[in-house]
Structure formats: structure tokens, C-alpha cells
Amino acid sequence: MFERFTRGARATVKGAVAQAERAGAASVTEEHLLLALLEQDGSRASFALASLGLPRRRASLEAAFTEARRRGGLTRADTEALAEIGIDIGAVVSRVEGAHGEGALAAGRTGRRWWSGHRPFTPGARTILEKSLRIALGRGDRSIGEEHLLLALTATPGTTADVLAEHGATYAAVHRALYGPEADGRGHAKAG
């Protein structure tokens, strides 16, 4: 599949690995893919991200990811659903961190180097890569670009899509930013 990636999409994937290394993460996550996209310039995805104001809100995005990791990766929807049955995730996190230290629920964050010299992609990150292929094929595109990665990040339920939505980057908003308000699901102009 990687051979179908554009130069920019390959740079994004490599950038995600670098993001994971800088963070001391044991593996490459969806978050790292998004942060790598935020560092790309001159692509359709970078223009869409800029039009939604995400590069200037990077610190807010990173804070939201940090908070999600503290919750053990639970999405806001998960947290709200548990609250409805009387489970206060904030209280659970506080008790666990009180007993085991700050960030105890943030799995996958270690400073260890892997013997192989590379970090694996999490199942969620692999899902994003696979979904980007399906999005590209569904649009009739021959290769996978950064825009397909960005759409996949917004279309795949989970913490990254939640954080993006909280910052105004829903699938619909990103699609409009990429292809304009009159585009259908494949990016073609709607018949009037």
C-alpha cells in the first residue's frame, strides 16, 4: 500500500514516526499522524488545516490529546456514557494517579528504544492508513495523498476524531475545506 502514497503522504508517515520518537512513544498513533500533517506545507491538506485554524491551535490539540491519554484513551463520548451510569472518570483518573503517579493510565509512553530501531504502528494508526486508501479509491484517486489521511483521521471514530471535532474539524468541515461547499462525496461538483 505504501507505494500508492504520494511523496507528501510518505513524508507525513515518516513525520509521524519522528513525532513518536520525540514523544518517547512506544508506537506510532493516530495522534502522531495528525501532528505530522500539521507540520506539512504546501499540500491540499495543509491548506485545509490552515483554513480551519488548526496549526495555530496546535498547543490546544496537544493538550486535548494529553488529557485523553490521562483518561486511558477514552473518548469524550465514552466518558459521558460512563458518567450516565455513575462512573466519574475524572475521579478514577485522580485515584489511579494518586496511587501510581501522574499519567499512569497513559499506556504506550516509554522512553525505551526498541531493539529493531523502529516503532510499530498501533492498530488505530494502521486503520487510518487503510481507511485513507479506501477514501482515495472511493474518490477515484490513483494515489493516497495527505488529504486522504486527514479525511481518514476525521472519519474514524476515536480520540483523534473527537479532538479534531472539538476544534471544528469534522469530516464535513474538512471535506468542504478540501473540495469546496459544492462537492459531493467524491469531490466532484454537484449537478445543479
Automatic annotation (TrEMBL):
<protein>
    <submittedName>
        <fullName>Clp protease N-terminal domain-containing protein</fullName>
    </submittedName>
</protein>
<feature type="domain" description="Clp R">
    <location>
        <begin position="2"/>
        <end position="184"/>
    </location>
</feature>
<keyword id="KW-0645">Protease</keyword>
<dbReference type="GO" id="GO:0006508">
    <property type="term" value="P:proteolysis"/>
</dbReference>
<dbReference type="InterPro" id="IPR004176">
    <property type="entry name" value="Clp_R_N"/>
</dbReference>
<keyword id="KW-0378">Hydrolase</keyword>
<keyword id="KW-0677">Repeat</keyword>
<dbReference type="Pfam" id="PF02861">
    <property type="entry name" value="Clp_N"/>
</dbReference>
<dbReference type="GO" id="GO:0008233">
    <property type="term" value="F:peptidase activity"/>
</dbReference>
<dbReference type="InterPro" id="IPR036628">
    <property type="entry name" value="Clp_N_dom_sf"/>
</dbReference>
